[in-house]
Amino acid sequence: FNLTNGGRSPVEVGAVGLAMPESPGHPPAGIESVVWNDAHVGGAHGWVEFVRVVGDEATLLVTPADRISSPLEAWRPMMEDLGGGDAYEWVVASAAWAAEWANNTQWPHLAMSDSLKQQYPPFATDPETPWPTTDGKRAMPRLAASGGGAARPWVDPTTLLLRPGETSSIALRLQLAEAGPRTRDAALAKMGSAVLRAVPGYVLSPHLPGTLFVRPPAGASVSTARADPPSGADTATLDATLRAPLPSGFVPVRLTAAGYGEVRLRVAFSDGSEALAHYYVLPPFERQVAALGAHLADVAWLPREYPDPFGRSASVMPWDRSICPYSGEPCGHVLNDARAYDAGLSDDAGGGNPLCLAAKVRAAPTAHEASRVDEYIRWTLYGVKPDTASPPLKSLQIREEEVAAGEADAESVDGVRMTMFYYNCSGPKGAPPCSDASSGHFAWRYSEADKCHKPFGGPTWCMTETMANATYRGFNYPHQISSYWAMYHVARHTTLPTVRDWHWYLYRAGKTALKLGTSNVGFMDGTVAREVLAALLLEGEAGNTTLAAIGAQLRGQMQRRQQRWAVTPHPYGSEFGFDTTGQEEVVVWNLYFGNETAAKLTVDHVLSYMRSSPTWPYHGGARSWGDVGNNGKYLATFGTGVQDRGQMHYRAGLN
After folding, report:
1. Which of 128, 305, 316, 433 has the highest count of CB atoms within 10 angstroms of its CB?
2. What value does the mean pLDDT take over residues 344-364?
3. Which residues are within 8 A (CB) of 146 and not within 5 positions of it... i.e. 6 or more apart?
4. 544-568 burial code (b ≥16 CB/10 A, e <16)
5. pLDDT digits (tens, 9 = 90+) for 109-151
6. 152: pLDDT confidence band, cut at 50, 70 and 90?
7. Which candidate, 222, 198, 200, 216, places its Cα nearest to that of 278?
8. What is the mean pLDDT of the chain?
9. What string of DSSP letters covers 256-273?
10. What does the alpha-carbon distance between residue 65 and residue 241 come to, in Å, rounded to a whole number?
């Protein structure tokens, strides 16, 4: 379209763009027609990629028709009322929006609405931003620092100045890729755009140099490659060295990283245009992994002696550091939440913390951190603490001795409870009102009980004791299998001390994995079951008949799942009908049992929502919706009607 200044004075336009709506609706309804998009916010050589979720994964590319007048300067969620459906905007001039983003606002949401304040009275005291937090005690903080964070957009913000009688033409080009996402780069080159490919990716560290392979626009060559200087709290730098062009037409740019934070790399071409690549620099990965282990084992660790009546001590609990910048006081463990599983060691947010420590110990064990996983198994996952917990004493997993003592039925043995934290609600079928002072067995101050009847960005499942004891949900199992799996490796392959021998840990891992059954959906982190199966069969071949029998049964169960997936058109079901968490197991088990065709179909499907993008948060991000409300603290789009995009979600790791 054309913008013309028909007046007698210059006009400065603070923001202008074009809407990029996705297809309406969410799977599974009409999954064959669902199309998702993501962007590379790359200025003159930016692009948006639309991909059909299943079928042929047809891919449509959008690029500037004119790099000067129509760059992708910003990728804006359109929070104004669009009459249903979500859309992002290709913004060619963004200065007016950038001024709002620096304050963590966006029109029409410049302050928290009165209706939202009424839902949660604590918000009535001058919240800092329009966005609430699930605890209802404060608003989401501003995420902009001087020269950094939201105050430093992907591309330098500009305005559009039109002199009297002047016209600016804004236009985009659309081009179908020949054969899905794998041919995207060829389509970009055909459209006259630069193509960027990073090895190993767009997150680097001082000990991990990288290479950016650059294919210049047709008829141009690479002139220079340089990184912007550090800004704000970011200290990251990239030293860029051009290498000789390759026969493929790509020019390697060797990158050496230092510092910490975001950094923007500019690649200039002989035609006067410039491509941008957005990197993130971390400390040396060994140090980063060690810091993660220390946090889980020493900071977020709830000590064995802590008097928690629910029995959650000797575990890695959710840890909230967000109040530290406000008060300077120590932060703490999250022991209350209206979403019971988040504070109950199960599901994603609750079970993810023990899973993370187990993964660290499996990959890089230390004696101290392995002892923490041992404590968790001994006292919390598969044991009780009569001295610090209150009756009825419960472990997260139903133990064989509970069945022997008549405290559980044989069918439920090895089952993983929904949560160790629960509410005492007196309404029908466990509905509110819920007590804020008693579990029904012991006194407890439920600080979040007032939210049990208020949907706050996602389900507020104030589960009752009966609900908490349920063991049917297969998604809760891989997190806990991983702790047994980690300790099997420590006991079997290291000299570090352990409470049990390797056989016991592998036996427990195998018995728990059998509870996955023959489900027709894939479970997040389900790859651990394949690893357990391989160990069971290996130890069985060495003469351990008990483990061999468990392995044979587990293999049979997994093969039945794989056989079903191999003949199902779109075997990507979940609790939500369709999700982006089950694809991991579909690929893993099809490869294990030799069906590479079915595995490749799923990988092709994964590429429809998991992009390769020179904008680091989108690179390898996997689309999701809803789980920020289920598991998160900050609800950045609550009250707007706009779906949150869980781009940096755990789904990225799964896929």
Report:
1. 316
2. 94
3. 232
4. beebbebbeebbebbeebbbebbee
5. 888 887 777 765 566 567 888 888 877 777 887 776 666 667 7
6. confident
7. 198
8. 90
9. EEESSEEEEEEEEETTS-
10. 31
Helix (H) or strand (E) holding 281: strand 274-281
Phi, psi of 639 (to 5 degrees): 90, 0
| Ordered DSSP codes for 155-203 | S----EEE-TT-EEE--EEEEE-SSSGGGHHHHHHHTT--EEEEES-SE
Peptide bond into 392 cis (omega under 30): yes
- Token look-up 């603070």 returns 14
Q: How many Å apart are CA 567 and CA 131, to the nearest integer?
A: 45
User: How far is C-alpha 566 from the chain's CA centre?
Assistant: 27
Q: Which residue has the tokens 């626009």?
A: 217
- 250-253's contacts with Cβ under 8 Å and 24+ in sequence apart are 250/195, 250/197, 250/213, 250/214, 250/215, 251/213, 251/214, 251/215, 251/216, 251/221, 251/222, 252/211, 252/212, 252/213, 252/214, 253/211, 253/212, 253/213, 253/214, 253/222, 253/225
How far apart (Å, rounded) are the C-alpha atoms in residues 444 and 434? Answer: 12
Q: Per the omega criterion (within 30 degrees of 0), is the bond before 433 cis? A: yes
Q: How far apart are the first and last CA of the chain?
A: 39
CB 69 within 8 A of CB 1: no
What pLDDT, on the 0 to 100 scale, is given for residue 226? 97
With contact defined as beta carbons under 8 Å apart, do 636 and 131 qualify? yes
Q: How far apart are CA 451 and CA 433, in angstroms?
A: 10
Check pLDDT > 70 for residue 623: yes
Please say whether the beta carbons of 503 and 479 come within 8 A.
no
Burial of 445 (0-12, 13-18, 19+ CB in 10 A): exposed
Give dist(CA 526, CA 516) in Å, integer.
Answer: 9
User: Which amino acid is it at 371?
Assistant: S
Amino acid at 268: A
Burial of 291 (0-12, 13-18, 19+ CB in 10 A): exposed
Question: Residue 415 in contact with residue 428, Cβ under 8 Å?
Answer: no
Peptide bond preceding 108 in cis form (omega within 30 of 0): yes
Band of the pLDDT at 625, cuts 50, 70, 90?
A: low
Task: State mean pLDDT over 174-185.
Answer: 95
DSSP codes of every residue in 524-554 = TTTHHHHHHHHHHHHHHHTT-HHHHHHHHHH
Q: Residue 504 gets which letter from DSSP?
A: H
- Residue 55 backbone class (left: φ over 0; alpha: ψ -120 to 50; beta: rest): left
Q: Is the pTM of this model over 0.85?
A: yes
pLDDT for position 304: 97
Phi and psi, residue 107, nearest 5°: -55, 140
Q: How far, in Å, CA of 196 to CA of 198, rounded?
A: 7
pLDDT digits 0-9 by tens, 398-410? 999 998 888 888 8
Distance CA 305, CA 78 (A): 50
Q: How many of the other CB atoms lie within 10 Å of CB of 273?
A: 21
**Do you know the residue count of the chain?**
655
The CA–CA distances, whole Å, from 294 to 14, 54, 284, 303, 464 equal 47, 42, 15, 14, 34
- H or E element that contains 18: strand 16-21
